[in-house]
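Consider this pair:
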Amino acid sequence: MVRSFVLISGIVNGAFHKIKKKKKPRNASLSIQSLPNEVLVQVLARVASRSFDDLYSAKLSCKNFNESAQDDHIFEHVDISKFPLVSWRASEKRTRFLMRCRDLGNAEALYRQGMCDLFTSKRIEPAGIESLKRAASKGHVEATYVYGAILVCCGGDLRQKGLELLYSLNCHKSRGLSVTECRERIKELIWNTMWVNREVTCRIVEAHDDNAAMKACNDCGDPQDGIKK
């Protein structure tokens, strides 16, 4: 709880410093709790995007934080990566929480939903692809990789778009996550935590063996180079 309060104080004080070159408030608690609700929601959203545990601690620290943490914006940005994809003992409360995250466009929740729809069905579900597309549009690294690989498999104009998405992972270095690490995390999710349809899975995962896709994913320059050969 202390850690989360210090983190929130740091974010708020940093914002004050950028807006006006003033000394840090003597009473950090008073400064935070006196913020307009919309500003407090933004601050809590930043905390939530870094750690669900810190958000939970912040909610316990005071009534204002707990009320503001119920805002839809928080659910859209909260980090849910520590929640297992499959849990045999999932409580109703946690299930509702994760469903709300998904319904409000949380990138990780969309990615998980897309992967389940895509890899556990007997065929490639359009809804799963759409969820991955939405997650990729929000900057989700693994979703970008899988969605890009799917487009490469589709061929035609979509293949070029897929190559560009795969290449973009190297351009932005994906929050310190290399393409190889990204691929391994996806494979681990598929093989270790999901009851998958092997036929559908292999058709998509093997997309990274495509020479052009590999060329676009290994710091080899313009993705167009892979198509020209």
Summary: Residues 18-22, 208-229 have pLDDT under 50 and may be disordered. The chain has two domains: 2-74, 92-228. The first helix runs from residue 2 to 19.
